[in-house]
Amino acid sequence: MDLNAIEPLEHSSLIRPCPGERVSGDAVVIRPLEHGLFAAIVDVLGHGPEAHELTLVIDAYLARHGSSDVSGLMTRLHQHLKGTRGAAVGLCAIDATGRVDYAGIGNTVLRRFGKTETRLVSQAGVIGQNMRTPLAQTLQLEPGDLIVLYTDGVSDRFTSDDYPGVVRHAAKEVASNIVQRFGKGHDDAACIAVRYGT
C-alpha cells in the first residue's frame, strides 16, 4: 500500500545524525493502519553506530507490530528491549476521523498546531529498562491541523511564532524545517509531521 495514498493524512519525516556521525540513534516508523496511520518516534540512548544498531531492532519490531493499541504495544516493546541500552519512544495512531491516540515514554514530544496548540505529555522512563504502565492520551484533530512528533535532539522551545509556516506548509517542508532550524548541534534529531485534511 502506498502510504502517501492514505487520505486525509499527508505525512513526512526527517532524521539527521549527530554532527560528526554517519548514522543516527533516532528512528521513525510509519505504517498504514486499516483506517489511518501508525507513527513512532524513537530516540535510543546515546548516538553513533551502537545506538543505530538498536534503532534497527526497534524499527523491525514496530514495522511488524504497529497498531492502534499504543499503550499495549509500548508494553510489548519494553519487554522486547529488556537488557538493551534502552530508548525513549513515542507511539501514535491517527484515525481517518482525526482521532489521535498517543503513548510516550521518555523525552519524546507530540504537539498539535492549528487553530489551537496542544502538547501531549510523555511519561518518565526508558523503554527496555524502567517503565510504568503506559497511559494513552487522546486528541481530536480538526481539518488542517498538523501534528509533529520529535526527539529531544530538537529544541522544544519553538512556537508557531518562531515558525509561522508550521500551520500551512506541507508536511515534508515542516519536518525538514523543524530538524534544520531547531535541531541541536550535539545530538541526533528526528521529526515526523502529519497534516490532517485540508
Write a brief caption for the model.
This protein has 198 residues and is an alpha+beta fold. It has helices spanning 49-65, 70-80, 171-182; strands spanning 9-16, 26-33, 36-44, 87-95, 99-105, 109-113, 118-120, 125-126, 130-131, 137-140, 146-150, 189-196. It has a 5-stranded antiparallel β-sheet with strand order 1-12-11-6-7, covered by helices on one side. A 5-stranded antiparallel β-sheet has the order 2-3-4-5-10, with helices on one face. It has a two-stranded antiparallel sheet with strand order 8-9.
Description of the molecule:
This protein has 198 residues and is an alpha+beta fold. It has a single domain, classed as Phosphatase 2c, domain 1 (4-Layer Sandwich), CATH 3.60.40. It contains three helices and twelve strands. It has helices spanning 49-65, 70-80, 171-182; strands at residues 9-16, 26-33, 36-44, 87-95, 99-105, 109-113, 118-120, 125-126, 130-131, 137-140, 146-150, 189-196. The strands form three sheets. The protein has a five-stranded antiparallel sheet, with helices on one face. The radius of gyration is 15 Å and the shape is globular. The two termini are 22 Å apart. Residues 1-6 have low confidence and may be disordered.
